[in-house]
From TrEMBL, chains A, B:
Name of this protein: DNA-binding transcriptional ArsR family regulator
Family annotation (SMART domains): HTH_ARSR
Keywords tagged on the record: DNA-binding
CDD domains for this protein: HTH_ARSR
GO molecular function terms attached to this record: DNA binding; DNA-binding transcription factor activity
Gene3D superfamilies given in the database record: Winged helix-like DNA-binding domain superfamily/Winged helix DNA-binding domain
Pfam families: HTH_20 (PF12840)
Amino acid sequence: MASRTSSPLVHPDMNGLDLFKIMSALADETRLTIVVTLAASPGLACSGFARDVTPSVLTRHFRVLREAGVIRQHDVGTRRINTLRKEELDHRFPGLIDLVLKESIGRVAPYTTADRAC
Amino acid sequence: MASRTSSPLVHPDMNGLDLFKIMSALADETRLTIVVTLAASPGLACSGFARDVTPSVLTRHFRVLREAGVIRQHDVGTRRINTLRKEELDHRFPGLIDLVLKESIGRVAPYTTADRAC
């Protein structure tokens, strides 16, 4: 199936993950909510997220997360699918994502209206 | 001995520590350098740090770290002494500070000209 865009989606490889870039990416409530949602429901399309923010703002949040190495994105037709890079993050920074998910409880809730894309 | 200032230095208690505020505080190279320096040499006066930034900027960085609960500050005469709250942070967020210190290697180096105040 054709890609949604012609520009490739760049992801840092596991050894290139930067803890401080990741911490900065996660210290934002919308991005944290995206991460919490993806932890509960891998493989969601961008269209299923955060109806309270504009699409362009949401795209920026996803890009920050992707460029920090927190999520992986790939296009399926016109849909951009997102997954949390949990295994790689656990391997590179043991305990970090579990700590983040634990501390997010009571602070943010996963989007419940998310549109499962696969 | 008289306090350096009349305004009290406010510190969050251990149960009030906020992981996301801490991650945001640590995602800055000057603040990370302060933390790395304090991990190596507890009990340093502010005057011993970061001669490459202005005192007012440095004061702001220390305040961000203190308000996030990363460091504890107390005044001894005219000197403000700083310590990393490592034990409390280890208890509240196991592994986080060790991960931060490990990942800081090769990225920032502790200030070597720091002025030991005690």
